[in-house]
Every structure is written in C-alpha cells, then in structure tokens.
C-alpha cells in the first residue's frame, strides 16, 4: 500500500484497445504505479461472449497477478431508461458477475434504472425486486453489487438514484452485505450536489468510487483539477464517510485521446493525483 492509504486504481478503458494487448496494457499500468484495476466488463462483455470470454479473463487475471495488481471493482452492463432493457441485459450481467468472481472482484458497479413515467415509489420497488433477484448468483460468485449515483442532467425526465437519499434508501431496503454503493464524482457535479454532505450521508454504505472531473455541462471523464469540481469537498466527504476503499479513476478521455507515446506520462500523472488526494482522505 502506498502512502495514500487508498489503493490507486483505474479501468483498462484508458486504452482504446484494451482487449487485444491485455498483457502490455496491464504492464503499463503497473509501471505507472497503479495498484488496482477496475474490470471494465461493461465495455467488453458483448465481444467476449462472442469470442472466448473465459480465455480473455484468464489472460487478464494472469497479467494482473504477474504485476501484483488486484481487481478493486468492476463495472457491469448499463441500462437505458426502459424496463425491457433489464431482461435483455440479464445474460450480460450474469457473465460479468461470473468473470468478476474469477478475477476476485469484490464489488461490481451497476446503475439503478428508471421506468419512464413511473413514480419514485414504483421505480424504487422495481429496482429492489430486480436486484434482489440476483442475490443467489452474487453469493455463488462472491461478488457484491454497488449501485451508482445517476444524473438526470441529460434526461428529459427525473432519473431514479440521482440523489444520495434515494441511493441510501435503496441500499438499506436491499439490506444485505453484498449490496453497497458507488459514488461517481462527475455525475454528482452534473447534478450540482454538495459532495461533502452527500458522501457523509452515504457513510459505510459507500464501497467504491468512480473518480472523474467535468465542467458541469457534460460527463467528460477527465482528470481531477482539469474540470470544476471542488476536490476539497470530495475529500472532506470521503473522510466523513470513513471511506477506505480504492481511489479508482474513470478518466478514459484524459488518456486514450492522447497519442500513445504520451499515455504513460498521463498514467503517471493520474497516480500522482490519486496518491495526493488519497492521502488527504486518510
């Protein structure tokens, strides 16, 4: 563990090709100083189901072990705002859970979904029923689900899970050790939330982070200090929550848009930012 006390991690989606050169990409993360990886199942699940997913998972796990990296979390499939997406996503969720279990992932991030035209109470009930039904497979895989805060900045209607009170209530209603929460700092900025207060409210329910910045208008996925988030409020909120998980970046637009010759420098900067902010949380 570094002096930050929070393990610094990132998703492999910082590379535009994060399937083919798995071993080389993992090596580059380790050389930059990362200690953990977010398994980006959301990006690879469809391709891997069609082309030897178990083989790719084995390669990824072996590469991480060779470089002393652990899988701090994963990201499962996302829903659109339509309830029929839930049924079509079920084989994708099952695959991501299975692969996460093989990689030793403790928490797989998922999004609460919103049924168009439904009341807040109806959306709450639908999410509780849907996610509770996954418990047997979660227990079999040894993987928890961390539900992420949403933003309705781009939506014509109110999105369920966009405010911390709804997330906390959803987690408490599911009432199982394998359910927790994920906080996306960029989504919170778009929602114009007080991140200090929100994170303090989530408290011990908070299991993983998606660390990213933006300018308050788009979900930019850029590095802290390059957008408009006040990081002192995020640090204060994480401290208040007693957060001790990974400092996991979701900033692919700060790396994979660069020429490959510059990406290692960007990765090293990410690690430096993570260690600096992580030390403040501790």
If you had to describe this structure to a student in words, what would you say it looks like?
The chain is α/β, with parallel strands linked by helices. It has a single domain, classed as TIM Barrel, CATH 3.20.20. The protein is 47% helix and 13% strand. The chain is built from eleven helices and eight strands. The chain has helices spanning 22-32, 41-50, 53-66, 84-103, 120-132, 135-141, 164-174, 185-190, 195-202, 231-241, 260-281; strands at residues 8-11, 36-39, 70-75, 107-110, 144-148, 179-184, 206-210, 247-249. It has an eight-stranded parallel beta sheet. Helix 1 runs parallel beside helix 3 (53-66), helix 7 packs parallel to helix 9 (195-202) and helix 10 (231-241) packs across helix 11. The longest helix is centred in the C-terminal third of the chain and has 22 residues, at 260-281. It is globular and about 50 Å long.
- Percent of residues in beta strands? 5-15%
SSE series: EHEHHEHEHHEHEHHEHEH
Gyration radius from CA atoms, angstroms: 18 Å
> Number of helix segments?
11
Low-confidence segments, ≥5 residues, pLDDT <50? none
- What is the terminal separation in angstroms? 13 Å
Per CATH, the superfamily is Divalent-metal-dependent TIM barrel enzymes
Helix content: 40-55%
CATH architecture term: Alpha-Beta Barrel
**Physical arrangement of strands within the biggest beta sheet:** 7-6-5-4-3-2-1-8
Which class do the helix and strand fractions yield?
A: alpha/beta
Quaternary status: single chain
Q: Kindly provide the name of the CATH class.
A: Alpha Beta
Q: Output the CATH topology.
A: TIM Barrel
Count of domains: 1
Q: What is the overall pLDDT average?
A: 93
- Biggest β-sheet strands, sense, barrel: 8 strands, parallel
DSSP strand count: 8
Choose one word for the global shape.
globular
